[in-house]
Amino acid sequence: MQKNYSVKKIMQTLWKSMRPHRMAIASLFILAMMANVIAVIVPLFYKSFFDVLTASSSPSDRVPMLIQIVFVILALNGFGWLCWRVVVYISNIVQPKIKKQIEVSSFAYMMDHSYAFFSNAFVGSLVRKVHRLANAFEKLVDEVQWNILGLVVVVVGDLLVLYLRDVRLGLILSVGVFLIAAFNIGFATWKLKYDYAKSKLDSESTAVMSDALTNSITIKLFTSQKFENGLFADVMERWRKAQTHLWQIEGFSEAIQAALMILAEFGMFYVAIHLWERGELTIGDFALIQAFMVGIFHRVWNLGKSIRHIYEALADAAEMVEILEMPHEVKDYPKAKSLAVSNSVIKFEDVTFKFNQTRAVLNGLSMQIAPHEKIALVGPSGAGKSTITKLLMRFYDVESGKITIDGQSIAKVTQNSLRHAVAMVPQEPILFHRSLMDNIRYGRPDATDEEVFEAARRARCHDFIVELPEKYNTFVGERGIKLSGGERQRIAIARAILKDAPILVLDEATSSLDSESESLIQAALDELMKGKTTIVIAHRLSTIMRMDRIVVIDGGKVVDTGTHDQLLEKQGIYKKLWDIQAGGFIE
To answer: Which residue range or ranges hold the ABC transporter domain (predicted)?
Structure first.
């Protein structure tokens, strides 16, 4: 099991969601046990029935007793039937509640993982892992409730009756049951590694498919359908081989079990015939023995499948338990308070950050942004500009140094209050597969329709929205794929306008716009930036020149700062970047 996630750890994880319903679960198991006890008692009355049926008295004398026995069997079976119906009724209510709680709590915990966690994970695989944990709970409860409890009660009860009837009968059946059960448990344990391997391949195939579907446009652009088909086919071929191997060894297991059952049945009847010959057994005893063997063998035969299902459930659950046991990389300080923003003064004080031990991104970066100041971060690719904004949003924690807003360390305030105070328009905004109204209103969920319309007008996207057949009720497709890049950007800006946070981060917010769209949006951005402390990552001249100050980043440090004209006079990195963009790279 991955990272030795024990059965105990998995059960502790499931128990957190089961505990509020422990009384209902206990009643399920008690009723199931009672119903299985009935299955032990009823064959005793069948024995009495056949003994009376074969008695030497006249039929008329035996009929009342036979009818009485039949009514007792009816009553017992009726009570067992009632127990099972109540079990089904309670299960139908309780299990969906617990599965819902497992999925909701798993989703909530997973969503609190860091930006880095999601950067290194396949979305499709994560979705499958959440569902698998909930399904693992259902499998485990069903196996215990419907199979394991019945096996224990029926085997113990039947063997006890047979031992009381004749020790030799009980001994023969005990040996048979022990051999079959021991073989099942040993075989299932040995096979566990193959179950885990198949489970891992199942997750891998889901991840490969999800990754390909997410990047379907890229695949078409590079005509890589054949390559991706081969990649997926290769994963599925490995899955096929693993599944075939599992089924083959399971078939071998069933063959051994069947042989052991045949031998146990032969031994039982061989001894029973000799006991009958000596008058120690009656015809009813043969009916009792047959009923017990059918009941026990049926349950023991299913023991192998039950063990397999239990181990499969544990293997499925282990993947999600690994995520639930993984500490959150970015956590709120134990005594964190809400961020109180007054002037929106941002300070980076000797900040160092590394993605890994060999890749340092920021090296002692220090800078201060004044209240309501608009700055542009400029520098070569990989200089650390986007990392600065991610650290400000606390998607990562700094390795050393600190970042403050109005004198408050962002590491000591709640993440929610920090991100509530910052509105961000990313370079490639990703929208929900929801309506345009829902996507814009995401900036402030309690906004009225009219406030959403006003934000869309200010972002210059209202006009194209009202031309759509469904207008604001138009669904945008997964990740907003039904809209153009410029339209997605304007929806993201409308969302930021509606949020109206005191701090604004624009990461190439106009990069996806054509010249006409950019001219429309610049006025909206100017209005959006009024009264806000703004950080802009920009390369376009039109954006850079509108800033109060330009900060040049290189090698993870601030290497220069000033206005556009001041930096051009210094003949430094900014001048070089400006010349390249302004056309200096064209001979």
So the answer is: 346-580
User: CA–CA separation, 419 vs 436, rounded Å?
Assistant: 23
Give per-residue pLDDT as tens, 298-334: 788 777 778 778 877 887 787 777 777 777 777 778 8
Average confidence (pLDDT) over 382-399: 83
- 230 vs 106, which has greater pLDDT? 230
Region of poorest pLDDT, from 106-120, 176-190, 504-518: 504-518
**Residue 65, CA atoms < 13 Å, CB-side half-sphere:** 16
Q: Is 67 exposed, middle or buried (0-12, 13-18, 19+ CB in 10 A)?
A: exposed
Sign of the Cα torsion 557, 563, 569, 575 reads: positive
pLDDT of residue 2: 43
| Boundary (domain end) residue, out of 470, 485, 500 | 500
Long-range contacts of 91-98 (CB under 8 A, 24+ apart): 91/28, 91/141, 91/145, 93/24, 94/21, 94/24, 94/25, 94/28, 95/137, 95/138, 95/141, 97/21, 98/17, 98/18, 98/21, 98/137
Domain boundary among 475, 500, 525: 500
Using DSSP bridges, classify how beta strands 346-356 and 422-425 pair: parallel, antiparallel or unpaired: unpaired
User: Given a cut of 70, is residue 3 above it in pLDDT?
Assistant: no
Nearest to 275 by CA among 193, 166, 199: 166
In sequence order, the 6+-apart residues with CB closer than 8 A to the CB of 451 are 444, 498
Whether residue 185 has pLDDT greater than 70: yes
In a domain, 537, yes or no: no
Q: C-alpha angle 536/538/542, rounded to 5°?
A: 105
In this predicted model, what pLDDT tens digit does every residue of 394-436 receive, in sequence order?
888 888 888 898 888 888 888 888 888 888 887 777 788 888 8
CATH number of the domain residue 132 falls in: 1.20.1560.10
pLDDT of residue 82: 94
Q: Which has the closest alpha carbon to 185: 225, 238, 141, 148?
A: 148
DSSP string, 202-226: HHHHHHHHHHHHHTHHHHHHTT-HH
261 with 113, same domain: the answer is: yes
Distances, alpha carbon 357 to alpha carbons 264, 364, 403, 464, in Å:
65, 16, 22, 48
| Residues 309 and 432 placed together within one structural domain of the fold | no
| Torsion sign over Cα 95, 11, 257, 199 | positive
* Mean pLDDT, rounded, of the chain: 81
DSSP-derived letter for residue 122 is -
